[in-house]
Amino acid sequence: MALSSRLLSRSKQLYASQTILLQERVIPARSFAKEAAPKALKGDEMLKNIFLEVKNKFETALGILRKEKVTIDPEDPTAVSQYAKVMKTVREKANLFSESERIKYTIQTRTQGIPDARAYLLALQEIRIKRGLSDDLGAEAMMFEALDKVEKEIKKPLMRNDKKGMGLLQAEFEEINKKLGIQKDDLPKYEEQLELKIAKAQLEELKKDALEVMETQKKREEFKDEEMVNVKSLDIRNFL
Predict the structure, then answer these.
(1) pLDDT score recorded for residue 39
(2) Which of 22-36, 45-59, 147-161 bottoms out in mean pLDDT, i.e. has the lowest?
(3) 222-to-33, 118, 229 alpha-carbon distances in Å
(4) Using CB atoms within 10 A of its CB, is residue 4 exposed (0-12), middle (13-18) or buried (19+)?
(5) How confident is the model at residue 147 (pLDDT cuts 50, 70, 90)?
(6) How many Cα atoms within 13 Å fall on the side-chain side of residue 212?
(7) Which of 84, 110, 129, 174 is close enough to 199 for a disulfide, judged by CB 3.0 to 4.6 Å?
């Protein structure tokens, strides 16, 4: 059960925030918006529909996990890749967010209505910190430096609806991307790398949980003389 529900929200990279900042309007994301629900729904009926949707997603995920072999070996690239592939299938079939989609959704919903570029970047910084994301490349500091440069040039705070000013900032961001070696066409590759890191982290967590359970069992009298099995030999399908 834990395998199908535990989706870690930690990673090492946060890409594409610049692109979202430069959009003139925030693209509406999927949510439980008022317009998304039928007007005639009453409270109990709405809760029932939500429960059924969650139940269907959960059963879809379990159905896939009961068929696919998962090897709990975070040090084996093949096992990590296979696990990432299985979880991608789960997300696609159950209509769940990937980590990249989850990050984008959080940014869109948390920053909608923010008028100026500096408040927007500060909101991104807060999201990054709260989600435990690191900025290994130092891109965040460079983005703030670019904003300082543009605001000094236009002699006023940069508003997101200022097309000319945002154009200047976009040019600065493009220079940052060149310096860091980030290309828009490579974003799918970055997302794949992110999902592999998450898959490895999940397998590490599963391995830790499995070892803790076996250690607890070993302390019981009836299992005292039995040797602990290798975690890699466990077949999760037998426990679902």
Answers:
(1) 54
(2) 22-36
(3) 54, 63, 16
(4) buried
(5) very high
(6) 6
(7) 84
CA distance 111 to 106: 8
Report the distance separating Cα 155 and Cα 74, nearest Å: 52
C-alpha closest to that of 148 among 158, 161, 138: 158
Closest among 133, 130, 143, 137 to 20, alpha carbons compared: 143
The set of residues, in sequence order, having a beta carbon less than 8 Å from that of 198 and lying 6+ positions away, is 7, 8, 10, 11, 84, 99
Q: Helices (DSSP H) in the chain: which residue ranges?
A: 2-5, 17-21, 43-65, 77-94, 99-111, 117-130, 139-154, 163-180, 187-218
Residue with tokens 């980030």: 182
Hunting for tokens 């900042």 — which residue is that?
21
For the entire predicted model, the pTM comes to 0.60
Q: Which of 216, 230, 212 is nearest to 2 (CA)?
A: 212
- Residue 26 in contact with residue 104, Cβ under 8 Å? no
Q: Which residue has the tokens 């890699």?
A: 232
- CB atoms closer than 10 angstroms to residue 73: 20
